[in-house]
Amino acid sequence: MSKDVLSFLGIGLLTGLFAVATIIGTAMRLDKDPAVDGPRALIAEFFGLWFAFAFLAFSFMVENSTTQWVFRGVAASAALIGFVFAAFFAGTPEVRVRLDQEPTGFDAPITALELNQPSSQKATPITESRSRS
Asked: Are 22 and 86 in contact (CB under 8 A)?
């Protein structure tokens, strides 16, 4: 029993690693930061690939050939659904941080420093204009 549980956890971790490696490999091949499309697109792509790799791995552990092809079909469908949701969520506007700001979208990297902001105006100290008598 514990061997089955460890096998399941191992496959879950390994397929998650494969999903991350696929996303990073695609980003390096396209020379595009995957976070530009937004966090929802990245999460959808990750879960789609994770489920796809998991079903593909489990398809090799089943003895019935019909079940193997069903699992492989589910794996292909999961990958396709993940890519469709990633494309659907790509480029969606960012939620406002404060209500008085416009949404910025995901064109600028999240870790970029905005150094060209205008300096804030200092409030002039209020002095008492009346003289004491």
From this structure: no
What torsion do the CA atoms of 33, 38, 40, 46 make, to the nearest 10 degrees? 0
Contact predicate 20/49, CB 8 Å: no
- Residue 101 has, within 13 A of its CA and on its CB side, a CA count of 9
pLDDT digits (tens, 9 = 90+) for 32-64: 777 677 777 888 888 888 888 888 888 888 889
Q: What is the domain partition of the chain in residue ranges?
A: 2-89
pTM score of the predicted model: 0.59
